[in-house]
Amino acid sequence: MREASRDRIKAFLTLLPSMILVGVFVYGFIGNTIWTSMTDWGGMGALALDPEKNFVGLANYVELFTGFLGSGFRQDLVNAVYYSLMLLGGAVGLGMFIAILLDRKPRGEDLLRTIFLYPMSLSFIVSGTIWRWLLAPQGGVNVLPTYFGLEPLTFDWLSSRSAILVFNWQDILRILLYGVSLVCILAGVAVLRKNRRKAMRRLASGVAVGLFVWLFGDVVPDAYMMREEHGFNLATLGIIMATIWQYSGYTMALYLAGFNGISQDLRDAAMLDGASAAGYYRHVAIPMLKPITISAVIILSHISLKMFDLIFAMTGPDNAETGHPALNMYLTTFRANEFATGAAIAIVLFLIAATFIVPYLVSQYRERGRR
To answer: What would the pLDDT profile of 50-85 be if each residue is shown by its tens digit?
Structure first.
């Protein structure tokens, strides 16, 4: 018992310096940012040696989501959602497709793997500069048809003002709750055969949320939300293409390592049972790589919230059509000197990132506890 207690004390003392550093420079700074976001630090005297800071509670957050001056942030937040969804769908789907092709052992596999993985080695600034040249209005992609005797394209890849999937900001709460309802219903359908009781709970929760929104969705007065339209700006297509190009090789490497880790005996057994190549990947290989898919989704979701440098390199800081909360935070904090509002934007991004990471950490902790 004494030896065990001594080992625990030694382990604690060994970890204590790291715990202190993490507590101060990570959680301490997060706490300071939260406090700053609840003050009125900004304006003319923001850069004074001893600036005046008054506690205002959640006023900065209310302004961001409901105030007139927060309209730009709200559009940037909508852009960030589309950036994340498109990056996840494009990079994961394309990376998995390339990994399947390379898993078939084609000629020049090593060279192809290097080519597909190479964009990952470039910084966002470099790839952003390259793609800005490629998507220039009077050159790059737009002049490709001229090499075949056709008229050049006229699409403004990085400056288009057109938007699709437009919705009213007053409906955002209803849209989010309907999304939660749909996710619960789909999750219930997914486990219906394996665990009927669990499936029924999820289905009931989804139906209950949907009915609540349908019956009481107008309880929150529209006066609290600005009536303004937001949507998917087509100018973001160029940035999405550049991001998918850069990170599809990364997901390819993850899936290819996973495919190589599957036993050859399992593949042979599936083929002997009559599975085709497509059937093997659909019913055997891809389901076995669920942990890799979850890891890729979490990592790419986190990356999509830090696209400051790519957007800055491709379109500059003042292009409202391709804005992002990270870019908005930089401009608000260091150009407008509105430090409290910039801190509030940072906390919003922090909470969004936590919605991806915390559930994963909780599930991993539970799985380890079961073992």
So the answer is: 888 889 989 999 899 888 878 889 999 999 989 999
Task: Determine the 3-state secondary structure of 158 from DSSP.
Answer: coil
229, β-bridge pairs? 168
Q: Which two tokens stand for residue 176?
A: 């989010």
Q: Rounded to 5 degrees, what are φ and ψ at 55?
A: -70, 125
d(CA 279, CA 271): 9
Return the H-helix or E-strand segment holding 166.
strand 163-168
Q: Which run of H or E residues covers position 230?
A: strand 229-233
One-letter amino acid of 24 = V
Contacts of 124 (CB under 8 A, 6+ apart): 246, 307, 309, 310, 313
- Bridge partner list, 230: 167
Helix, strand, or coil here: 55? strand
CA–CA gap between residue 123 and residue 303 (Å, rounded): 13
Alpha carbon 228 to its chain's center = 24
Q: Which domains does the chain have, with CATH numbers?
A: 38-49+59-370 (1.10.3720.10)
Judge whether 301 and 88 are in contact, CB under 8 Å. Answer: yes
Quick check: 371 pLDDT over 70?
A: no
* Rounded Cα–Cα distance for residues 159 and 319 (Å): 8
**Quick check: 213 pLDDT over 70?**
yes
Give the integer Cα–Cα distance in Å for 69 and 87.
29
Within 10 A of 304 (CB to CB), how many other CB atoms are there? Answer: 26
CA–CA separation, 371 vs 367, rounded Å? 6
